[in-house]
Amino acid sequence: MKTFEIKTIIEKRHWIGFLAIVICIVAWTMELIGSVYICPYCRVQRTVIGILGVILLLPFASHWFVKYMAIIFGFFAAVVASNQHFMGWKKISSGEFQFNDNILIDPFLLSGFALGAIIAMTCIIIKLPNNKPES
């Protein structure tokens, strides 16, 4: 199926980047208006999702330095998301786990989504073809 081929995903990277920026803005807006609690883990994840979204929109995103910066931001946020998500698994193992009353803002689910999104966007950026000058 062509939809899930890397070439197709790279061609649609601008839409992915735009969606990531929208997710970042909506998440920050929800915190700033007080509809979700303040969470340093979430702040890192939503910010890096936005940064990676901006990188996906850049016309020079295939430059090695931009890729390098994306890897740094992506790994940092992936570690933060992994730590937050693991805390949920730790609660599951001890029998203390309970989903948030509002399932849409459950930290276990959101950190899992963020982890997947951050790794996926970082991989897309890494796979961008290098722009080689014409000979």
Rounded mean pLDDT is 92
* Structural classification: mainly alpha
Determine the strand fraction and express it as a percent band. under 5%
Sheet of most strands: none
Please render the helix and strand layout as text.
Elements: H1 6-11, H2 13-32, H3 40-57, H4 64-94, H5 107-127
Helix pairs in contact: 2-3, 3-4, 3-5, 4-5
Characterise this structure.
The chain has helices at 6-11, 13-32, 40-57, 64-94, 107-127. It is mostly helical. The termini are far apart. The model has no long low-confidence stretch (mean pLDDT 92).
Features:
single chain; 135 residues; mainly alpha; 5 helices
Put the structure in a nutshell.
By secondary structure, the chain is an all-alpha fold. It is 71% helix and 0% strand.
